[in-house]
Amino acid sequence: MLLLRYSSTPPPFNYLTMKHLHTLLIGAAAYCSPLLLSAQTAPVLTTFPVGSTTVSVSALTTGLQVPWELVWGPDNFIWMTERGGRISRVNPATGQVTPLVTLSDVVTSSEGGLLGMALHPDLLTTSPYVYVVYNYNDAGGQYREKLVRLTYSNGTLSSPLVLLGNISAVSTHSGSRLLILPDRTLLMTTGDAQNRPAAQDRASLNGKILRLNLDGTIPADNPVAGNASYTYGHRNPQGLVRAGNGKIYSSEHGQDAEDEVNIIEPNRNYGWPTVEGLCNLPAEQPFCTQNNVREPIFTWAPTVGCAGITYYDHPAIPGWRNSLLALALKGNKLTQIPLDATGSTAGTGAFTLTGFGRLRSICISPQGKVYVGTSNRDGRATPGANDDQILVLENRLFTSTAKANTSQLSLWPNPARTSLTLELPAPVTNTTPADIHDAVGRVVRTAQFNAGQRTTQVGLQGLRPGLYSIRSNNVVQRFVVE
């Protein structure tokens, strides 16, 4: 029986000890937000082992309506869509839900409604944009799907701009996960909308993974000029993540026999409707050979109703490092899929989160906590009194004094008190700034690497306890001040 709860980097004032409480009460008014006690004390609902690590499961917040997407934001809050049309920010330290907007033209029907979301990488600075996918009725009353960009300002989302609309839809098979890539293009999954031939039709937007620029235009280097499709031959992909190896992985609902995890490669055919799962049947093999079909790296048989997927590589839970974590709508399951050096699978592990029902959405905090959204009010389960909820899977014994590494910037200790050491992989040739931002994006401290340096220190005296980010060398790293 398993459940996980873990919030990697809490917002300001939330990673606290009692000795900080008096200071925070005095300073809280300056932040114009209520001071709430840390969710680290939330009751443990269950635990389970991952290797030698005990993972605790607790509830961050309850009473939700199908939290379809969870995204860890640059403000160190969880951004959430609910299928009925509400978009909110969730405080990972307190569970407080702050609505940003309820979209009035969202139309829910069976699996349809407000679905995927992605945040612009520069959300808190130069590009305050949030991208969402949802179902609606067009002027003729036909059920459709569209990609919309919203603008974030003063704690609200407004100014909807349709980037891609009039996508054929029915009440099921909508796909709708979003992922922004380092080249500032956007991937969007679409389902076949119960029209199987559409998946192999490059002129159709259905049964595809689409690639767009962030303004909705088609990138010049897409596989087919003037065509939004990046890959095709999909039934209903509902998970999408870029792993630490740079590869893109998608989880996809099969029909009866096999759900899939695929490595997404441009211009590849993923087989549907002729192929489900591996190319292992006589009727499938000639099609696969002739049509550039990319086989999945992992399948579930029978199907589990795979939903959200993410990549985990944090020392908080060592047994999950370099693994995909995939949720299932059937059987209360979370599946760990370890990756090998080639990016393929290196075994598997399954964890049953008994008592929590259908598992839909997932995100990870910078400190290694896993947040899971349930989906028990979607019409296919019997909801409990607390449904729907966000669960936290975490190692409550974990504290980090080691380096936090990316390929471009390392920092330690984390959490920190009086100073922070920054290290680049090589000396810089020119003076390189390093700015510390608080959780609302304000620059609160500035340091720099001088020419010829690869290491520098930043003094933290005077900073209130809480979550901060440091930006240098085009990299953002998050850390906690105790």
UniProtKB/TrEMBL annotation:
InterPro entries assigned to the protein according to its UniProt record, in alphabetical order: 6-blade_b-propeller_TolB-like, Glc/Sorbosone_DH, Quinoprot_gluc/sorb_DH_b-prop, Secre_tail
Domain named Secretion system C-terminal sorting: residues: 411-475
Gene3D superfamilies: TolB, C-terminal domain
Limits of the Glucose/Sorbosone dehydrogenase domain: 64-380
Protein name as it appears in the record: T9SS C-terminal target domain-containing protein
Species for this entry: Hymenobacter metallilatus
Lineage, highest ranks first: Bacteria, Pseudomonadati, Bacteroidota, Cytophagia, Cytophagales
